[in-house]
Every structure is written in structure tokens, then in C-alpha cells.
Amino acid sequence: MAELSTLARPYAKAAFSYAQQASDLSGWSAALETAALVSQSEKVRELLDNPQLTSEERAETFLSICSDALGAHGSNFIRLLAENHRLQLLPEIFQLFEALKAQAEATLEVEVVSATPLNDAQAQVLSEKLSRKFEREIHLHCSVDENLLGGAIIRAGDTVIDGTVRGRLAKLAEAMNS
């Protein structure tokens, strides 16, 4: 996986730089998301792996599927990726682009998995506290996992906060065994 990230990073940075100069981060984000989803289709993956097709044929076939959602600059980007045999990196490029976009916009996508659904007041308090901690605007994505005994797991970028009962008991057991 690290290799894919290393290969995708220059393309994501180039797309981000262009989108930022064009003041179209959200447009590029949507286009890259569409291209990433299309590239993950099993039939499209077979197409991308077909050694009998030239780079131009791969690009044109790919664009025939989703060129309406990409626009002229996005289509040129797809042609460049095809020419460099990097179309399979589209999901990774999209993820890296989104990380750069979030950093530039000072936002952070936070996933909260709790034992019970959060009410609006709890979500608001959690969002405010996380916003102060990370000094960014927080976008919460809440879900419920009934297998948790209580509490919640919070994933914010590379940070994971385990506030579950099971997690706290494991920490207590570890401290007692030390």
C-alpha cells in the first residue's frame, strides 16, 4: 500500500495544485471521486489490466464511461494517467487529494462509532471539543456498532481515540499487569 501512495502522491499534488489555482477544489473532488469509483468496477479493472490495449485506447474507453462528470481538464488528467500506466491509482489519488483539500480548508472528517446513537446535543459537544483539539472545522460521520459495550471509537485522520468500555478495561488490565 505504501508503494501505491508513493506513486499516487505526485498526481494528487498536481491535481490539487491545479484545482486550487482554478478555485475549483469541489469540482475536482467530485470528478476524482467519480473516476475512482469507475476505476474500482470489476469490468473496468479488467479493461485497465488488458495488455492488448494501448494507453490511448484505455483512456478513451475509460472516458467514454465518465467523461461527462470529468470535464475537459479532468479528461486530460485521465489521459495523462493512462499514458503513464497509472489509471489503477485513481482511488489512492482521490484519497490523497481529499486529504490535501481538507488540510487547505482546515477541515477534518471524523468517524464516530458508538454503542448507541448520538443525539444532536452530544454530537454538537463532541464536534466542538474535537474542533478545539484539532484546530479545524469538524465534519462528523456517526454510526452505531451494537457489539460495543458502551462508549465510542473516534477516528480523526491518523488519530484513533478508543473511549469504549472494552478499551478502558484493556488499559486498566495492562496498567495492573505492568
From TrEMBL:
It comes from the Bacteria. Keywords: ATP synthesis, Cell membrane, CF(1), Hydrogen ion transport, Ion transport, Membrane, Transport. It is a peripheral membrane protein. The keyword Plastid does not apply. InterPro entries: ATP_synth_OSCP/delta_N_sf, ATPase_OSCP/d_CS, ATPase_OSCP/dsu. This is ATP synthase subunit delta. Belongs to the ATPase delta chain family. This protein is part of the stalk that links CF(0) to CF(1). It either transmits conformational changes from CF(0) to CF(1) or is implicated in proton conduction. The gene is atpH. It is found in: Cell membrane; Membrane. The keyword tRNA-binding does not apply. Pfam families: OSCP.
